[in-house]
Amino acid sequence: MSNTPQTFEEWWVGSHYRKFVESEGVPLYEESYLDNLATLPLAEWERRGGKAAYTRLGDQEVNNLQIVEIPPKGQLKPEKHMYEAVMYVMSGTGATMIWQEGEPRQTVEWSEGTLLAIPLNAWHQEFNSSGDQPCRFLFGTNMAQVINLYQNLDFIFNNPFVFKDRYRHEMEKDYAEKNKHWSLRLSQTNFIPDVRKLKLDTWAERGTRTSIMRLHMGNTKSQIHVLEVSEGTYVTAHRHGPGAHVIQIEGEGYELLFNPGDEINAEGRRKVPIKPYGVISPRRNEYHQHFNTGKGPFRQIGFKGWGQSMSSTKKYDPVGAARSDDRFSSAFKLRYDKEDPAVKEEYYRELEKNGVTLRLEPIDQGG
């Protein structure tokens, strides 16, 4: 029987990523905001075991999240793949085993707050070490982009090529607690035991009392940052290309999302509450802005577009996207003194409701 398509519907596949998720038999969550990844409904995941769900946030298919839960004493089936992945643990304790074919296996233990790079096309397997509690974690990946690019799952999941420059057994020391601070706001590491305790560098360009650390992990092109916003503080509105996923890991507040031109019309803004483990993923060129309304700092982890903000002359741009003062730039940021005064007025009302007395300085310190 011929496999040649006879109709348009047979010929037009559309999104190979969507088709893959459908074959997995688990949910696909869309839009650009999810209020809590830790309680997000999942479904039984036959391919690897446990439960899982995928995302397609921000109207893009470059980056996605894969949310996974393992029952007490459970484990997933081993897997390797031709897309990059970084694992963040939301709850529970366990371990990930990593290895190349024919080499000894390395075990990395983790708990809530751990950030772990999965080497490209190396075997990995996850285990729940608790006898009575499930564990839940997520993978930030460029799976969607890779599946749509190659359109062949056998190539992606059964490729024999070994990236020895990414991982081999003698590199296991790279998964010990080790963090190379290369320059201001830039570190290289494969493993952080608890990213909520990671020391960050100040970032006055983005806002008063704000700090950040950009992470280069697993010899990948993945772009990850940890952002902290102090009490009584919000960051300047900024925009960039699609694909970023911003996940709240500590503290509470809200997010504003709006399109260019809406900055002079408060009614055009979407306001969503944010707390652990909520996530936003702005659409292409959509402004977004982070507001801390709680007592004490809040902290977020961002999985950004694979390849975004890269430079031909730098391995990783230490300054990053969304820093331009050019209104026509896709990386434009809107300074405090240029935004609608209603933004700050609404924010101060939220602080007053929560009993927070700290306020921003009267002059824009971000310049």
Describe it.
The structure is a single chain. The chain has helices at residues 8-11, 16-24, 143-150, 153-157, 341-353, and strands at 28-29, 33-34, 43-44, 51-55, 64-70, 85-91, 93-99, 106-111, 115-118, 123-128, 135-141, 180-183, 186-189, 191-192, 201-202, 210-217, 223-229, 237-238, 245-250, 253-258, 270-274, 279-280, 287-292, 298-304, 333-334. It is mainly beta and 367 residues long. A hairpin with a 7-residue loop joins strand 15 and strand 16 (210-217). Helix 2 crosses helix 3. The protein has two domains: 8-174, Jelly Rolls, CATH 2.60.120; 179-353, Jelly Rolls. Helix content is 11%, strand content 32%.
Observed structural traits:
367 residues, Jelly Rolls, nine-stranded mixed sheet, eight-stranded mixed sheet, 5 helices, 25 strands
The percent range for strand residues is 25-35%
What would the average pLDDT be, to the nearest integer?
Answer: 86
Give the tally of structural domains. Answer: 2
**Low confidence ranges:** 307-325
Order of helices and strands: HHEEEEEEEEEEEHHEEEEEEEEEEEEEEH
Indicate the CATH topology of the largest domain: Jelly Rolls
| Ends distance | 67 Å
Structural class given helices, strands, pairing? mainly beta
CATH second-level architecture of the largest domain: Sandwich
- Helicity, as a percent range: 10-25%
CATH superfamily of the largest domain: Jelly Rolls
